[in-house]
Amino acid sequence: MRTYLLLTSLLAIAIYSCTNKEAAAPDTGPVVNNCDTLQISAAFVYGVIQSNCTFCHSGSTAPRGADFSTQDKFESFVSSNETTFRLRVLSAQADMPPSGALRQSLRDSISCWISKGMPE
User: Fold this and answer.
1) Within a domain: 22
2) Which domain holds residue 83?
3) Which has the closest alpha carbon to 79: 39, 118, 120, 45?
4) Is residue 109 part of a domain?
5) How do the pLDDT tens digits run along the chain, 120 residues long?
6) How many CB atoms lie within 10 A of CB 33?
7) Is residue 104 part of a domain?
8) Structural domain contains residue 18
9) 83 touches 102 (CB < 8 A)
10) Cα–Cα distance for residue pair 45/42, rounded to 1 Å
11) Number of structural domains in the chain
């Protein structure tokens, strides 16, 4: 009788644990719904770049000439290489920074800022 109760309990636990519940989506920060209404500053964007990119992308040894050691150099690089920057940093397939893609909310904000002409 004990074996029967044990097996029945284990079966009930197995069935209950195999429900088709999805985990909650991770919080990626605020969602950018309308780029037209957002006010994103160059200082904010460059702060993100400094925190995540200038460790490697600084000075004469910066890969592929992507020197982000100053805001002007960063903006100049993005102006000249927008497609590459968007692909490598902002797209769903982003491989930069190598430590892991930026949060989606940051990628959206930077993309919006570039689309608006990189305002101060």
Assistant:
1) no
2) 31-115
3) 118
4) yes
5) 777 666 676 666 656 665 555 656 555 444 556 898 989 999 999 999 999 999 999 999 999 889 999 999 999 999 999 999 999 999 999 999 999 999 999 999 999 999 999 999
6) 9
7) yes
8) no
9) no
10) 5
11) 1
